[in-house]
Write a sequence for this structure.
């Protein structure tokens, strides 16, 4: 007696034990957890097999039974003080040590009771970041849809590293000095040896006819595309975007065998012009579905600069990409996405590429748009990107755009290319200076023409480095999102007119419901495959359909791993 630590418990730890696949909302403040739990228990559709709220009493974390978090996705909700927020690293150590499936942090406050004063009226001069946290704090007593709030907290939570960067901006965490950074960062304190079984090994195409879009824009790579002013860089970006979100052949001649969601960062084209171009390429309907755009021209009220040199801006981009399940990031363009003059500074450019490397670790392909150095090499295979040499050196692929002016001035290409360049519209040469995933493309130039206002490009020719034309037959191929479902629709004659059971559903929810009716069962994995989205969005769509009473748990009272239409 007197030598044993007192017993301690987690709130709802019996539910964590009973529902091993539930996501756990870990409130640092017990009063917040109790208030949120009380609201959830009064909410129709709440299921502890999906979401569990927990907390603890006392300050001695060592006596708590952390093993209850084994295998759970955990979202930590800090209490609203700097001291409590700074403890997130300690909590992370215990939770990850218990082998939780994941650990993320919510960048906001949930308040169990009304504060004594208006959070919009701050006393004294406080940083804008802290003021924003107070303004956006959620008072639980005023929440009308507690389940939606819990889902939003889970959806908007960020990784520990992102929260660390966020905390450094607020002055909660110290920014480490370069000499304080550890030389070894792996948890086992050992270097990881290369393993040939770490992933699938893509085959190098041996002929131009074997090349696909995925060779040009592979996952976990960054591709640089540069050209002189008005060479057609933004139009090229929109053609790439169309290919990635619809599965259409790139420039009408290079097929695609996959598609995904795209985050497009636009700092070059004014809003009205950008919208017109989206309509021209017939992808305006993809906005909010598979295409997500951040525009400098809609950014006036934000709390961070629209610049890749602002850490908060970069953190927000990463959070949005994870939330929307994006596989591709397009940066249009590097000069206008950095502070004035920084795109030519080696240190500033390398900081941006350090961030891009972290982004790529999530399996994302990044397309960086930049300007070509305006010298005698412009319009040739020797063209270089403007500014620091590292702008080219730190990319896995490099495309040089040759515009109409250069084609006419230097008499590039054959007679058909010259004739097209003299017409209205846009004529370009896409020169593959570097393409490590498809070496057969290197030193080849694809010549294309986009008639004025047209949605499709005309293929003109492919030439070698010496200007000789290569025989090539374009493949105008479009990837179907779900060939089996399309075939069934054609056979059955089904149209988009559904019964009253689908009233009020979004297009994505309708697609998922149709598939569930066709197959009899649907899981998160099925949703991700058909909508090309991330796990969070897929889960949210299924939970919304459950909440509407359209889908039900197909596991007869157990954890919901799959759902079926309600009969």
């Amino acid at each position: 007696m007197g030598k044993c630590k007192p017993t301690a418990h987690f709130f709802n730890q019996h539910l964590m034990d009973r529902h091993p696949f539930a996501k756990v909302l870990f409130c640092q403040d017990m009063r917040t957890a109790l208030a949120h739990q009380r609201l959830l228990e009064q909410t129709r559709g709440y299921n502890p097999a999906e979401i569990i709220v927990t907390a603890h009493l006392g300050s001695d974390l060592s006596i708590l039974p952390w093993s209850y978090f084994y295998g759970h996705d955990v979202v930590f909700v800090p209490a609203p003080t700097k001291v409590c927020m700074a403890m997130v690293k300690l909590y992370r150590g215990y939770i990850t040590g218990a082998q939780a499936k994941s650990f993320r942090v919510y960048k906001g406050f949930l308040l169990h009771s009304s504060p004594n004063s208006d959070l919009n009226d701050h006393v004294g001069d406080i940083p804008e970041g802290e003021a924003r946290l107070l303004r956006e704090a959620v008072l639980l007593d005023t929440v009308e849809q507690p389940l939606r709030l819990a889902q939003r907290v889970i959806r908007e939570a960020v990784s520990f590293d992102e929260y660390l960067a966020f905390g450094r901006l607020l002055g909660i965490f110290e920014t480490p000095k370069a000499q304080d950074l550890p030389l070894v960062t792996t948890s086992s304190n050992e270097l990881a040896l290369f393993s040939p079984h770490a992933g699938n090994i893509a085959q190098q195409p041996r002929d131009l006819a074997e090349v696909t879009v995925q060779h040009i824009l592979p996952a976990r790579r960054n591709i640089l595309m540069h050209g002189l002013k008005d060479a057609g860089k933004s139009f090229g970006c929109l053609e790439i975007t169309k290919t990635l979100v619809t599965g259409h052949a790139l420039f009408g001649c290079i097929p695609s065998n996959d598609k995904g969601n795209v985050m497009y960062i636009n700092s070059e084209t004014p809003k009205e012009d950008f919208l017109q171009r989206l309509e021209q390429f017939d992808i305006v309907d993809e906005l909010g579905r598979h295409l997500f755009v951040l525009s400098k021209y809609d950014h006036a009220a934000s709390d961070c600069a629209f610049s890749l040199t602002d850490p908060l801006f970069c953190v927000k981009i990463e959070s949005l990409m994870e939330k929307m399940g994006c596989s591709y990031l397009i940066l249009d363009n590097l000069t206008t996405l950095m502070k004035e003059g920084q795109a030519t500074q080696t240190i500033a450019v390398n900081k941006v590429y350090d961030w891009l490397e972290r982004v790529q670790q999530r399996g994302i392909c990044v397309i960086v748009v930049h300007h070509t150095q305006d010298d005698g090499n412009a319009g040739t295979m020797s063209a270089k990107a403007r500014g620091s040499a590292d702008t080219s050196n730190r990319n896995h692929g490099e495309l040089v755009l040759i515009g109409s002016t250069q084609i006419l001035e230097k008499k590039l290409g054959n007679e058909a290319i010259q004739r097209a360049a003299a017409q209205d519209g846009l004529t370009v040469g896409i020169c593959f200076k570097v393409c490590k995933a498809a070496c057969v493309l290197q030193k080849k130039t694809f010549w294309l023409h986009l008639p004025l206002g047209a949605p499709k490009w005309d293929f003109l020719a492919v030439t070698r480095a010496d200007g000789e034309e290569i025989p090539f037959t374009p493949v105008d191929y479009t990837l179907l999102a779900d060939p089996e479902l399309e075939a069934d629709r054609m056979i059955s004659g089904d149209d988009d007119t559904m019964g009253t059971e689908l009233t009020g559903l979004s297009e994505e929810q309708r697609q998922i419901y149709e598939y569930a009716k066709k197959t009899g069962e649907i899981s998160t994995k099925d949703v991700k495959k058909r909508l090309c989205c991330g796990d969070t969005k897929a889960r949210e769509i299924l939970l919304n359909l459950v909440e509407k009473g359209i889908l039900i748990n197909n596991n007869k009272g157990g954890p919901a791993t799959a759902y079926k239409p309600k009969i």
Remarks:
- The longest strand covers residues 426-435.
- Residues 174 and 180 are 11 Å apart (CA to CA).
- Confidence is low (pLDDT under 50) at residues 178-188, 480-500.
